[in-house]
Amino acid sequence: MVNFTVDEIRRMMDKPNNIRCLSVIAHVDHGKSTLTDSLIGAAGIIAEKKAGDTRFMDTREDEQDRTITIKSTGVSLFFSLNKDKFQTRQREIAKVNLRTGTKKKERETAEFKKKLQAAKEFIPPECNSAFTEKKTGEEKVPFLINLIDSPGHVDFSSEVTAALRVTDGALVVVDCIEGVCVQTETVLRQAIAERIRPVLWVNKLDRIFLELHMPAEEAYQSFSRAIESANVIIANYQDDLLGEISVIPEHGTVGFGSGLHGWGFTTHTFSYMYAKKLGLNRVETMHKLWGENYLSKKGKFFKNQYNTKTGKARTRAFCKLIMEPIAELSDAVMQEKKEVYTKILENLEVTIPKDAKDLSRKPLLKRIMQTWLPAAQALLGMIANFLPSPVKAQKYRVSNLYSGPLDDEAARAIAGCNPKGPLMMYISKMIPTNEKGRFYAFGRVFSGTVATGQEVRIQGPDYTPGRKADLHVKKVQRTVLMMGRYIEQLPDIPCGNTCGLVGIDQYLTKSGTITTYDKAHNFVDMKYSVSPVVKVSVDVKNAADLPKLMEGLKRLSKSDPLVQCYTAKTGEHIIAGCGELHLQICLKDLAEQYMKGAPIVEGQPVVSFCETITKDTPKDIIGKSANKHNRLYITGKAMSKTLVELIDEGIITENQDFKKRARIIVDETKNEIDLQSARKIWSFGIEDAKQNLLVDMTKGVAYLNEIKDSMKTAFQQACCAGVLCGEAIRGLLVEINDVVLHADAIHRGAGQIMPPMKRAIFGVEIASGPRLMEPMFLCDITVPMDGLNGVYQTLSSRRGEVTEEISKSGTPLTQVKAYLPVLESFGFTGLLRENTSGMAFPQMIFSHWNLMMGEMYEEDAKLKKLMPVEGSFAITKAIEVRKRKGLKLEMPLLEDYNDKV
Predict the structure, then answer these.
(1) Are 707 and 635 contained in the same domain?
(2) Is there a contact between 403 and 523 (Cβ–Cβ < 8 Å)?
(3) What backbone torsions phi and psi does residue 615 show, to the nearest 5 degrees?
(4) Does any domain span residue 890?
(5) For residue 95, what are the contacts with CB-CB under 8 A and spacing of at least 6?
(6) What is the DSSP letter of 826?
């Protein structure tokens, strides 16, 4: 039975100190959705005994069939904790935080003692909302938890990005055997970039006791490696404004347990059991329960594992006091030794639930463990005590979230989480409704209150303050609370909460800003960790269904944060995704949900390439206008990897102050471009070709400013579709060395400037060692030693390159990391499983762009000009792309693009 009503949730929404917004993030198959069931079961939405089996947050049929999460799903839950215990715990944390990093001498000062006294008397703001429970008369602190379960498969990373943007904390789940994997690192890095505070859950401990029967010390080492790996990632991407966010078991920011069986604990859980016996306080006990703390047979603690006198080994406290009792209980239940486990349960003061009396072995063990160490209790403790409320989080997140000045009314309201300030809400994704073709606009209210019938400004990603482009002023039809598989209607929703809006979807493509403040700037756009590099063409069987396809593609584009749907110049309808599985799901959604049963025809998946240059242009390339009155002299330079990354990561942008941008370029690239030239950057590329620069190197050219816009537009068009095969150019720096213009303005219009500029850029590309670049996946494969040969065989047959091989201590598993061309990734998973008898499972994530093997052009000694290299792998691929795009099959020549004086 549900432990709360919608009215209770609405009342809690007005208490932002007691709200926690969190995402559950992890690598695929590490147990996020089963773990989430524990919290949902504790809230009464599903039966607790079914927690772990229900996968309540997997709302789609294909999610249940594939047993993976595809779409991030939100739910709001109401919980309460004992007031005295919560307050005591908060004071303990305050004292630990105060002592951490403080030297012994400093602890003797009056100032420190004053702070320590304040920590001892600290009253958490959450306690101001305490209530007395009618049944027990116990004082409780209420909490509203807005939880989002996100996918673990790398192909759906964009869903994780959308979830992280609207939350303040992250529950990072790690398999205790596999440890931190490629996607764990990706999502944790994303979380820290969004200034989201993590806590860690080491999952699947049931495997330690029931499947692997791993010795306690070996299990400890496995957990320790996972925690250490997570902390290395946290340290690498640490943000000063977030403060200390390492996950530390002895502080209580790491939980251990089994999501599938619904049990778990932190060191704080066991500190209640052992503090009195050990004659220590709870904080001291927690510190003894992890790390280099060993117990002698007499129960004394030592820092050394071995007795210096006798040489006998001591047992680690974590193993002796936590792992061994669980192992003892598990063995007794699994071996059906009723007398043994009954006595253990009596000592633990645990009663077997009535509904479990007739169970035996694993089902009985599951119910006993759920009763003794409920996972929800450990999770709630970590969430309530260590993850920030919107009031705390928005203070340090505002500078990352808001694109406008940090002293305007909107920024101040966001930083203060002010329900009476102007409405500032970010829509991070669209969720399909039961009504075909309509969507809930899902997001987070950062300030003000959003209400049904309220008139709001809907600002799309291209909106600029003061202009009307990408701006709509409309009314919100309904405000709804997302509850996993269900929705609940509410009249209004204040800041600090996530919700869905009805009636907004037709004015936003994917994401945007909702506000009532007429001077508001947009929220910063989300940065995705993956790119849509895999494409497929779709068409209809019957021409009469073409309007349905066009509408279906629009809806598909809206439903997924990353997918791109567009019509190519050839007239093909293209869907671009970030991997094979992502495309499969998109095509399934298009056919089943958005095409209303009309059959579609799918083309073969294809891959986006990039064009680049590898050397500087040897001499000026000339572009002459059609009327022969204007001449442009340009050259090209290959940009360094560092400069390309500065653009990729948004460290330098077109809208930056030109002096500040120039200084960053000079400092970061070690004078690749001198300061004067860096200040004269005219333009960046656009869309997928933004990693290109146009620089004015001219001196004293008359009328140059009049043609600047025409040259910029021509540059951007040329970069979007290069000369080799119409793919985006990457890493090209074009220098305008000289320009000769007609004195009469009518003879130097856009029609006279753009074509020669575009032609000259193509000439620069051909003359500067052009190459094709292909996208590369980082492929992470976990396989037993027996299957290792099959992995190497499969990778070498697909042009893969192994970069690392790591043996996982304590297991027969080996982790292989390799780079695999995206072009070779289709059917790779099936082939790998075939070659390893189903033992290997790969995870692939976009890594980087790499030069494709094979030169494109070489100097012909007889003809004394550049000619395409016949039979080159890169030329073959370029011709395939040209054929698909309807371009001439002959490769272009420099003479066609370099005009004579």
Answers:
(1) yes
(2) yes
(3) -150, 170
(4) no
(5) 116, 119, 120, 283
(6) T
Q: Are residues 214 and 335 in the same domain?
A: yes
Q: Any idea of the CA torsion for 692, 697, 701, 707, to the nearest 10 degrees?
A: 10
Per-10-residue mean pLDDT, the chain, length 901: 73 92 88 81 60 53 61 83 88 81 74 78 83 81 89 78 91 90 87 93 91 88 92 88 89 92 92 85 88 79 68 83 91 87 84 76 87 90 93 94 91 94 94 82 94 94 88 93 83 94 90 93 85 86 87 88 83 86 87 83 88 93 91 94 90 88 90 87 90 92 90 94 93 94 87 93 94 92 87 92 83 86 89 87 86 90 84 92 90 89 72
* Structure tokens belonging to residue 524: 């910063």
Domain presence at residue 378: yes
- Quick one: CA dihedral 245, 247, 250, 254, positive or negative? positive
Instruction: Burial-class residue 227 by CB neighbours within 10 Å (0-12, 13-18, 19+).
Output: buried
Domain housing 777: 772-851
Q: Are 426 and 513 contacting, i.e. CB atoms less than 8 angstroms apart? A: yes
CA dihedral 609, 164, 148, 183 (to 10 degrees): 50
Q: Note the pLDDT of residue 47.
A: 53
Asked if the structure places residue 779 within a domain, the reply is yes
Q: Rounded to an integer, what distance in angstroms lies between the CA atom of residue 112 and that of residue 504?
A: 53
How many angstroms separate the Cα of 356 from the Cα of each of 346, 364, 370, 376, 775? Answer: 16, 6, 11, 19, 54
Dihedral (Cα; 306, 310, 312, 315), 10-degree rounding = -60
CA pair distance 787, 838, nearest whole angstrom:
9
Separation CA 407–CA 411 (nearest Å): 6
- For the chain, the residue count is 901
Output Rg (C-alpha) for the chain, integer angstroms. Answer: 31
What are the strands, taking DSSP E only, across 206-298?
A: 254-258, 263-265, 294-295
What CATH number should be reported for the domain holding residue 585? 3.30.70.870
Give the 3-state secondary structure percentages of the chain, helix then strand then coil, rounded to 5: 40, 25, 35
Find all residues with CB under 8 Å of 424, minimum gap 6, and list them. 402, 410, 413, 414, 445, 446, 447, 448, 495, 513, 514, 515, 517, 520, 523
Tokens 């694993």 belong to residue: 362
When divided into structural domains, the chain yields a total of: 5
Helix (H) or strand (E) holding 174: strand 169-175
Distance CA 855, CA 401 (A): 44
pTM to 2 decimals? 0.84
Under the phi-then-psi rule, with left for phi > 0, alpha for psi from -120 to 50, and beta for the rest, what region is 232? alpha
Cα 794 → chain centroid = 29
The amino acid sitting at 676 is Q
889 is a domain residue = no
CA distances from 411 to 286, 414, 499, 650 (A): 40, 5, 21, 22
Amino acid at 594: Y
Please check whether residues 363 and 455 belong to one and the same domain. Answer: no
Distance CA 384, CA 188 (A): 20
Name the burial class of residue 773, with classes exposed (0-12), middle (13-18) and buried (19+) by CB atoms within 10 angstroms of its CB.
buried
CATH of the domain at 690: 3.30.230.10
- Cross-strand pairs, 144: 19, 78
Q: How far is CA 489 from the centre of its chain?
A: 29
Phi and psi at residue 628, in whole multiples of 5°?
65, 10
